[in-house]
Amino acid sequence: MNKRIYSILQLLLEQSEPLTVDQIASKLKVSNKTIRNDLKQAQELCTPYHVVISKKTGTGVELLGNINDQLSLKRLVEQKLGAYMEYSLAARRIFLSLRLLNADEPCVASQLSKELYTSKATIHKDIRSIRPAFQTNKLDIVSCEQGFYVKGKERHIRDTIFDFMHRDNAYYKLSSLLLNPNRDTLDNEFIFPSMDYRGIDFKTVFQIARRHGKNVFSDLSFQRTQALLLRIFINVIRVMEGHSIELSKEFISQMEGLEYYEDAKRIYDALAEEYGITFDELEIQYLRTHINSTLVAPLKEKQDIFQTYAKEFTYCLIQSWKQKLKYPFDKDKKLFDNLLAHCRPAMIRFQHAIPIENPLLQTIKFQFKNTFNITKQCCKELSIQFNVEISEDEIGFLALHLANALDRNKRTLNTLLVSDNGLGINELLIERINTLVPYITVNNCVDILEVADVTLNEYDLILCTSDTLYIDNIPTVFIGSILNESDIIRLNRIGYKYYKEINNPIIKIQNSN
């Protein structure tokens, strides 16, 4: 719906007396015929609120309905008109992108400028600025006499719609629809200002898809559930608007042997019945692809092509980590198994440029900075080898597998205690250290006079009760014969420092350089 429709409703809601069509046309500076056509669309907005636009010859146009229903409609109109005025630069460009992607006919700059309360020159500038993002997704914004339209394959259009809906600030409202399905506060609200779909439209598709796709959604995280449901919603509205997906023979052949065909068909059969539309075989295969790119399915004895790719990719990534970090990751079976399970759906995403959100990406980049950067270097090399694009979101997930492998193989500091005390005190000291300092394990204790007979390079750390001892190349910490609180705090601080160093091959490499 364009802004003028809401302006008509605003005029009618604010008037206690009927307005003639000529009066409305004069206020909005358009023709009588335009208003008559707009009133038909305005009625579509009013119907869910049980409000009727009454047109009487000789009297004029007015709204009929109880006061509460009209107040609800008024809140929607105010929200919608307010949204047109409050767009930031980024939000305005998202609005334009979604409007262009969903338009069935060229979008006129003058109309867009009215909707967004900005100049036609600004609209032209905004379109130039969003064109590179479209080109990245293999689409083009074409300028013609009638306005602007998007040219490209349907699959890329759907991917780009998903991308911009995901960027829109309204995306969080979808979470509310999923978490609170019985609440109706968003039912009549247009979730995305540039699209003519209300909360109830999203909710209906979501509920049908989840009810008939229990096998698909039962093991999905909330974030991935939301993303897959949005994909399904986009597919539904595109089919309703007469757009068909086209897939290459290679694409279809790669889908052979993948799971969830029957689940995809069951979901679409239910949606087809609800909306009176038809999903052809290619649509089912397309949904099947997205389901498989989202779910971590059990690995099969008879490998499909993506499982084969995933196995090769997993092996190469682990070898790359091993080479760069000088660490035997290839001996870690759990790393290989977990990474392979992750990479199987990831390879579908890589091959078909299906984006995925990593909600922890910024945390990963901050908390595991070195791990992320090493993985990014490896993925840059592998993307060339496998001829795929690997986004930072994907790299973040892979970096977590590396971080987990490093954590899993951490060991405490192999520590030697050098003491000038007797046996009883030494045993008490060893017990307290091993109990109160988790980073240190004292595996041997020698008298200070016996140090020369010990192979010191077997140890990560030496603790000594006498400050007369000097040992080169091995970290040495002097402690009291009976640990006090300050000794424990100091040992934990020092122990953690060396513990991090011996268990982080990245730090080892940095120190060696």
Protein traits:
513 residues, alpha/beta, Arc Repressor Mutant, subunit A, 5 domains, four-stranded parallel β-sheet, 23 helices, elongated, BglG family transcription antiterminator, Mga_HTH, transcription regulation, BglG_antiterminators, HTH_11
Which sequence of strands runs across the widest sheet? 6-5-7-8
Strand content: 5-15%
Q: What's the overall geometry?
A: elongated
Low-confidence stretches: none
InterPro entries: BglG_antiterminators, HTH_11, Mga_HTH, PRD, PRD_sf, WH-like_DNA-bd_sf, WH_DNA-bd_sf
Protein name: BglG family transcription antiterminator
Keywords: Activator, Repeat, Transcription, Transcription regulation
Pfam families: HTH_11 (PF08279), Mga (PF05043), PRD (PF00874)
Compact description:
The chain is 61% helix and 8% strand. The chain is of the alpha/beta class and 513 residues long. The longest helix has 21 residues, at 305-325.
